[in-house]
Amino acid sequence: MIERSPHPKGVLERGYVVHQQKCAKCHGHEDPANHDVEELTEDILPAMARKSKLTLADEQAVTAYLLAARQVPRQDQGSR
Ligand code: HEC
Fold first, then answer.
1. Which domain holds residue 61?
2. Predicted confidence (pLDDT) per residue in 27-62, tens digit
3. How far is the CA of 6 from the centre of ligand 1 (A)?
4. N or C end of the chain: which has fewer CB within 10 A?
5. How many domains are there within the chain?
6. Which pTM does this prediction carry?
7. Alpha carbon of 35 to ligand 1 centroid (Å)
């Protein structure tokens, strides 16, 4: 996942930690592959970042993390 993302590794790690700490307390890991990229970046992330009171930098890190995670093939479905 890290190799496939244009973002530096530190940003993705921060996104992962923020997701664990802020997002996962309300719901488990929502599979980002269930949503298309526009939906994630334009609707869902801004709304969820408000719910979690994220800073802009944290919102961007979580966005980068989710977009990278989205490209990881799910084990039950093979690659997309
Ligand atoms: C305060 C609780 C809360 C927090 C914090 C929260 N969520 Fe959510 N999330 C919800 C609820 C409730 C829903 C379903 C209803 C809705 O869309 O508002 C939801 C729905 C979603 C969905 C599905 C949206 C859809 O349209 O199907 C995604 C993806 C998601 N959240 C991701 C995140 C991410 C990423 C974060 C962290 C930045 C986050 N959530 C933080 C409560 C929360």
1. 9-70
2. 887 789 899 999 999 999 999 999 999 999 999 999
3. 25
4. C
5. 1
6. 0.85
7. 12
